[in-house]
Amino acid sequence: MPTQSQRVTVWDLAVYDREGQLILIVEFKSKLHTLPEWAAKFRRNILAHGDFPKVPYFLMVFPDRFYLWTDKEATLDESEPTYVIDASAIFQPYFEKAGIRNQQQISGESLEIIFSSWLTSIIDSPEVPNPADESQRWLIDSGLYAAIAGGSLQFEAGA
User: Fold this and answer.
1) Which of 3, 72, 86, 115 is a good FRET partner for 135, with 20 to 30 A between their CA atoms?
2) Exposed, middle or buried, 12 (CB in 10 Å: 0-12/13-18/19+)?
3) pLDDT band at 6 (very low <50, low <70, confident <90, very high)
4) Backbone angles phi, psi at 134, to 5 degrees
C-alpha cells in the first residue's frame, strides 16, 4: 500500500462541503458527443487506476454534457451515470462572454475555468437553484446542491 506521499491524485477538481469533507470529485474532458456507456467505461478505468476516496458524488464534465454518479462506494463497475445533464444551457452564457462560438473551440483549460466559475457561483449563492429550470433541477434532485452549498473547491495536481 502506498504511503500518503506516494499516492497519486488523478482527479481534476475536488469539492468540499461546509465542514471541509470531500463531497465531489470532478474530471474534465474536452471530448464532444460522448455516450453514457462510454462515460461509464471511462469512469471505471479512472477508478481502477487511481487512489480514490469514497465520495458521494463523481462528475465528468464535457463541453456539451455532464455525467453525475451519486454512489458513495465508487465501485469499479461500469454503471451508467445517475444523471445525464445537457451542459448547453449552463455553459452558453460563459461561452458567449469568452467569445467561444461553438463547443469545439473550447480547450481543456478553458472548460475547467468556465465550469469552476459556474460551480463557484452555485456554491456561494444565497439562493437555491430554481427546480423549475431544467438546467438546474439535477442539482436539487441529486442532493448535490445541499451537499456543496457553502463549501469550497480546489484544483488537484493531476497524475
Assistant:
1) 72
2) buried
3) very low
4) -55, -35
Stretch 58-65: mean pLDDT: 95
Side chain identity, residue 83: Y
Q: What are phi and psi of 121, to 5 degrees?
A: -65, -35
What letter represents residue 96's amino acid?
E
Residue 62 confidence (pLDDT): 95
* Cell digits of residue 58: 463523481
Q: Could you write out the DSSP letters of every residue in 7-51?
A: -----SEEEE-TTS-EEEEEEE----S--HHHHHHHHHHHHHHS-
Cell of 34: 460522448
Query: Cβ(36)–Cβ(68) under 8 Å?
Result: no
pLDDT (tens digit per residue) in 117-152 = 999 999 999 888 887 888 899 999 999 999 999 999
Q: CA–CA distance from 158 to each of 8, 11, 143 (Å)?
A: 8, 6, 27
pTM of the predicted protein model = 0.85
> CA 36, CA 130: separation in Å to the nearest integer?
26
